[in-house]
Every structure is written in structure tokens, then in C-alpha cells.
Amino acid sequence: MKEEIRKILLEGGACAVGFAKAAEVDPGEWELFEEWLSRGRHAGMEYMRNHPQIRRDPRLLLEGANSIISIAFNYRGDTAPNSPVASYALGDDYHDVLRDLLNRCLNSFPTDAGYRICIDSAPILERYWARKAGVGFIGDNGALIVPGAGSMVFLAEIVTTLPLVPDREWIRRCGSCGACRRACPTGALTFSGNSIDCNRCLSYLTIEHRGDWNDPVHIEALSSAATRGMTPLFGCDRCLAVCPHNAGKVRARTVPALAPRKEILAITPSDILSMEKSDFSATFRHSPIKRGRFDGLHRNALNMIK
Ligand code: SF4
Ligand code: SF4
């Protein structure tokens, strides 16, 4: 049954599928997560502190949960677009696209059971579960690396009551590469472990951060990035773009709705600055960019032209 489920998901557009036993997160991994929080490296994303019991034990997400199916979908195309918007955000909103896709896959699963789809919609350590399920390993840039498909992937999970035989977990690490640490324009990756300091990360600062950038750490990080020619409109791909696992022949995107939208590829800071709120809502309907909000995109666009 497990292989039948894997086949359905791969034929549906996934680039990798793995299975893990639903259980508490390993104590060592949980400690690392708590330490990351206690050092404030989650910056303003206080929601990362919510529901610690569920995050630690995903069996609480579904009564009778026995297994976690981890699924990766590649959003990388054959060529890297030249855009001030992070690649993952150039297409339709992956939350909607992948939920519809997974719901269709569930209808073809060989048996009825309890299923819960999670796509950033539940407190779950998704890269940890992807590693446990044998989908890939976690790189020094914090991203999940799927061997043969790279790290430009979206992750989703299906928590299920089905008792499926687990796949072998990945224990591989990056070794001495260090390309992402050297390429990061803000020093967000200079800490030990797979630990990003979001206070210094352009993805956090241009997407998740609300309000002006007043904190001296934010100002210093943005200024350091600007001197290296990086003033993004939405997110940052630098530590993914330099990763050797994304170079050369890797499996490219197979879900058409994740392909870049022409109007988003063409967007400029002037376009953003000339928008009213209603234009923003219309342009970024069904786009991940709406998460940055009108005020946030306006702030980012001003930073690009100053
Ligand atoms: S997304 Fe950009 S700023 Fe953030 S860690 Fe990667 S390279 Fe650094
Ligand atoms: S760039 Fe190198 S160190 Fe960084 S995630 Fe990729 S393989 Fe690992």
C-alpha cells in the first residue's frame, strides 16, 4: 500500500515522497529548536512558539495518527529567473495549489483512513519530518535538500492513521562546502548547526517583518546586503542559488501552476509604489506575495530605490 501511495503522489507532481512513524520529536532535535527560540533567532515570528505540545508530538494533530507522509514538490524551473522576488513566490500560491493537488491524490489512495494535510497550516517541524521520512537532509542554510532534486522545494505532510512502514531517515550533512554561508549577504548563517538568525535574513525582513526596520541588527543586515547589491522586493534566493545541490541536472518543476506568472516576473519597485491597496489585492490574488502585505511591499520598494 505504501508504494501505491508513493506512486500516486509522484504521479501527482511530487519530486520525493517518504514515510515516517508518527512519534515525539527526538529530544536532541527538540532541544535545538528550543535553543533557537530562546536565542530569539525566530525574530518577530512569535507564532513559532505556539502549540509546543503539538509541534513536539504531531500525533496530537489527528486522533489515532500512526504515520507521517512527507512530500516535496520542486518549484525550480529549468532556468533561474532574474527577479527581485524569490523564486518560490513567482507562481500561484502553493498553499492552494498543493492542497487541491493532495486532496485529489487522497481520493485515489487505496484505502479509507484518517488523513490530515498540512501545508504551513499546522505546527509541525516539516524539515525534521522530511529528514525522518527519508525525503532529504537539512543543509547548512536550513533548507531541506532532496538529493537529485535540490532544495528549491515546497514541503507538505499528510498525517494519517495508516500504520505504514517507515523509510530510512537521512543522516547526511553538508560537510565542508560552506558556499551558502559565504554567499549570504547579511551574515544570517554564521551560527553553528542549521541555525538561521532570522533577524539578519532578507527573507524574514522583507516578508515576515511587520512595520519599519528600526532594530539596529535589521538596519545593519540590510545595509550589508545593499553594499553587496542586494535590495530584494520579496525574499531572497542567494543561499539556495549557490548550493551545489541546485546546480546542473536536477529534477525541475512538474506542477504547472507553480510556474512564474508573467505579471509577477515583470513587477518593478515603481509598479509597487504606484499601487493602491485595491491594486495590490488584485495583482497578488492567489500569490504568496500577499503575505508581505501592502505596507511591507511598499517599504521594500522604497528601500530598492533610495
Ligand atoms: S535567504 Fe538570503 S539573507 Fe537569508 S540566509 Fe539565505 S542568503 Fe542569507
Ligand atoms: S551550499 Fe553547501 S553548505 Fe550550504 S546547504 Fe548547500 S551543500 Fe550545504
Structural write-up:
This protein is an alpha+beta fold. It folds into two domains: 2-160, no CATH class; 179-244 and 260-305, no CATH class. Helices cover 35% and strands 10% of the residues. The protein contains 13 helices and six strands. It has helices at residues 2-12, 27-38, 52-56, 94-108, 126-132, 179-183, 202-208, 216-227, 238-241, 262-265, 269-273, 277-283, 293-305; strands at 16-21, 67-74, 115-118, 137-138, 144-145, 153-160. The strands form two sheets. Strands 1-2-6-3 form a four-stranded antiparallel β-sheet, with helices on both faces. A two-stranded antiparallel sheet has the order 4-5. It is globular. The chain starts with a helix and ends with a helix. One iron/sulfur cluster is lined by residues 141, 184, 186, 188-189, 196, 201-203, 236, 238-239.
Entry keywords:
306 residues; alpha+beta; 2 domains; four-stranded antiparallel β-sheet; two-stranded antiparallel ribbon; 6 strands; 35% helix; globular; binds iron/sulfur cluster
Low-confidence stretches: none
Mean pLDDT rating: 94
Main sheet attributes: strand count, strand direction, barrel closure = 4 strands, antiparallel
What is the rounded distance between the termini?
58 Å
